[in-house]
């Protein structure tokens, strides 16, 4: 494991170990587009990490873990990330986790094992001893972790290039007027390129934005306004419908 400052360089090919871990208090940071020969697990105790892929955006909330398979081009933008950990796994272990980008829930056991592996020295012995005993538990916990719905597909149709992903997307009627396409055409585009209707996609955007603002400590009334909802109670109802828990319960899950 290496503690890194924001200006420090790190490349996985500098080391021959099958597992590598780094830690940092990154603050604001933008990795730029890149890929690794190894699979990567990202974790942050506070703040969010925005992960950009070729045609998708994913938000890594605090207390969750992102899995990025080997050779996947991605960009990580960290927003006041605290308690940042990154674990890199060779193909031998990466193939056991999966071949798609995922945001996974973190059990207390997975959190503890992740921390131990993340802070292990670069020259650790992974074939024998205590760390070798931890690996099967680590892999099993990752494989059984539930997926979090914070991955948002981005339509590539040229008519959708004007969508501002930082602001609440317009209603279907407003979008149709703006781009000069019918509501049926927009619905077909989203079903084809994202797998869901525009209304469902817009709700998913709202949910991801709500998580980001909660992680930043924004008050309910601010989040309600940003999401275009009518009241704090509407926010709580919406969040419970999307996640099964209230915003406060969701926050508590990564604060404990």
UniProtKB/TrEMBL annotation:
<dbReference type="InterPro" id="IPR003313">
    <property type="entry name" value="AraC-bd"/>
</dbReference>
<dbReference type="InterPro" id="IPR009057">
    <property type="entry name" value="Homeodomain-like_sf"/>
</dbReference>
<dbReference type="Pfam" id="PF02311">
    <property type="entry name" value="AraC_binding"/>
</dbReference>
<dbReference type="InterPro" id="IPR018060">
    <property type="entry name" value="HTH_AraC"/>
</dbReference>
<keyword id="KW-0238">DNA-binding</keyword>
<keyword id="KW-0804">Transcription</keyword>
<protein>
    <submittedName>
        <fullName>Helix-turn-helix transcriptional regulator</fullName>
    </submittedName>
</protein>
<dbReference type="GO" id="GO:0003700">
    <property type="term" value="F:DNA-binding transcription factor activity"/>
</dbReference>
<keyword id="KW-0805">Transcription regulation</keyword>
<dbReference type="GO" id="GO:0043565">
    <property type="term" value="F:sequence-specific DNA binding"/>
</dbReference>
<dbReference type="InterPro" id="IPR011051">
    <property type="entry name" value="RmlC_Cupin_sf"/>
</dbReference>
<dbReference type="Pfam" id="PF12833">
    <property type="entry name" value="HTH_18"/>
</dbReference>
């Amino acid at each position: 494991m290496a503690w890194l400052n924001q200006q420090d360089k790190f490349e996985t090919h500098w080391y021959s170990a099958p597992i590598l871990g780094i830690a940092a208090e990154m603050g604001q940071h933008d990795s730029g587009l890149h890929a690794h020969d190894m699979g990567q697990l990202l974790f942050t105790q506070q703040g969010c990490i925005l992960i950009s892929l070729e045609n998708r955006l994913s938000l890594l909330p605090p207390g969750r873990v992102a899995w990025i398979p080997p050779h996947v081009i991605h960009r990580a933008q960290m927003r006041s990330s605290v308690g940042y950990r990154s674990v890199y796994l060779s193909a031998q272990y990466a193939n056991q986790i999966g071949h798609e980008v995922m945001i996974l829930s973190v059990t207390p056991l997975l959190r503890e094992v992740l921390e131990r592996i993340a802070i292990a020295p670069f020259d650790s012995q992974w074939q024998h001893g205590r760390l070798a005993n931890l690996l099967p538990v680590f892999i099993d916990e990752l494989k059984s972790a539930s997926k979090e719905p914070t991955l948002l597909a981005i339509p590539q149709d040229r008519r959708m290039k004007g969508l501002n992903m930082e602001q609440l997307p317009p209603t279907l009627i407003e979008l149709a007027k703006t781009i000069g396409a019918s509501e049926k055409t927009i619905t077909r585009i989203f079903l084809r390129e994202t797998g869901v209707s525009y209304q469902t996609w817009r709700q998913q955007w709202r949910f991801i934005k709500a998580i980001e603002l909660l992680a930043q400590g924004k008050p309910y009334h601010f989040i309600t306004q940003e999401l275009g909802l009518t009241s704090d109670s509407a926010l709580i109802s919406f969040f419970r419908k999307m996640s099964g828990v209230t915003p406060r319960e969701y926050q508590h899950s990564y604060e404990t």
